[in-house]
Amino acid sequence: MNQETTNSRFYLFWLPYAAFLVITYIYFGFISNYILYFQEKSSLFVFSYEFLQEHLNKPGGLLIWLGKFLSAFYYYPPAGALILSSVLTLVVFSITKISYILTGKYSLIVSFLIGAILFYLHTNYRFLLFNSLGLLIQLGLFWIAIRYLTFFKGWIPVIIVPFLYYVTGGFTIIYLLLTISFLFYYKNKTMWLQVFSMWALSVLLYLLSSEFLFFQSDKTLLTYPLAQYNSGSQQIIFLTVSGLISILPELFFIRFKEPRRLRISYVMRSISGTTILIIILVIIAALRIDIKTRKYFYVEKLFCENKFDEVIAYNTANPPTNLLTVYLNNIALCETGKLDDQLFHFPQNKDGKTLFLEWKLESEILNIGGYFYYTAGMINEAHRWAFENMVMKGFTSEGLKMLIKTELINANYDMVEKYIGVLKKTLFYRTEAESFEKLLKSGLIEGSDSELVKKRQTKTEHDFFTITDNPSINLGLILASDSMNRKAFEYNLAFLLLKKNYNGILHEMAGFQRLGYTKLPVHIEEAVIALAVSNKGKIPDTGNLRISKKTELRWNQYLSVLQQYGNNIKSAEPELRKRFGDTFWYYVFYK
Hints:
By secondary structure, the chain is mainly alpha-helical. 70% of the residues lie in helices and 0% in strands. The protein is built from 32 helices and no strands.
């Protein structure tokens, strides 16, 4: 019976930790795994001394390096979710163990409260792993310091400080405050000497770092990387959590007297506490699921895998509301030759912002803005966007692949070899690096890689200044130097359609025969019919290409609906949107 009771208490002790681990694992691994996707794509861990050296030039750099190493495993969401949920669970467990050493009791409320807040913070895809990792290291070393206090005659808390400062930088302030709080509670004979020594050592470390070890600003030496990449309310919440951890000894000694009649058994306390924890975590998870962001990153993932038909199919089934999603979808339409057939099947911006992005030094824009130029044949401009993104953020997997592609197309093989060498030193991109290496050896001869060979054949050969503030102008410059660039031609037509520029569309009609079209794109047919209305029913000259019977039938049906509502455009709008919302005609009338 005693053995059964012991086993029962053992399982009940671990029950809330297991619940916490499982719920956070399911959330990050399956429900919101776009968080892991974004963070894995946002940096690239490289196994090289140079990459390590980049993180040794300031205190806390090693913490960032370790965070990037663990985040590399986000490449596989189940593995990434296990790492992240384990770190959060270990933070909770460490706090619980510290409470037991200090008070002889397990303070589960404080532990899981902090764990729940950290879980909330990590539901924001910009909140990186190193933040919780930094907290875990402070807690772990503090636990070691108080657990083995007799070592080195009680001076182990002080001895740890230099190592901790070099590895975690500004996070060390949490350890210092924790330790000082503890020393005031512990009140041994050398308490004041230890407190003085700790702060004196901290000041000495700062002065040595500032004058001799690191050439960094005072702010960097004192705070980096504490909350380095957080902003707004995220930063306030994280710093509040850090503050709570810094005064754990005081929190643990806050006691609320439980009325005798409300006291419940250990079994009921454990089960009820775990139930409340599960409810809180589920509520946080439900409130923090960002459907819009999840859809965007899923589209971006398909796009980066060149699954353009799947991008279009997904956005057809799940109409996008995000400008960047539509931007990627339009590139997918162009790459599959459907841009001017299905442009208005999706929401568009009349200023062309869903066709191309203006130059901005923002990570989201720099990360994907160059894909338009890559598709349109402006390989040098696509390279520039990828290079600037690398300068701002360091190597990323997709940015590095774009640099390799553009340098291969431009036959800059020395740079290709250099970039491939970097990609080969990664954990999960070696296979792609080896594929690029084969292309490098082939020199992109005909048939060696259909995508890159085609890009080399259609790349813009004539140099001109790119107008990044008004990208539509670049289309005219491309076509002026290369009238056979089909994708640039289709993009130009799409922009003319968005601007309702009938004269511009008429001016480009000759291009269809020049480029070997066998039929007019659907939206161009619709524009031609719309032109005929304003031209007393006379169809503009379309050469040997004729308007399809299907488009003519739809136009007659469109007119029929208008007539049913007495040609009242406002009254007819709901019915026209339902039946013809994917046409140029509806766009002209209502956008």
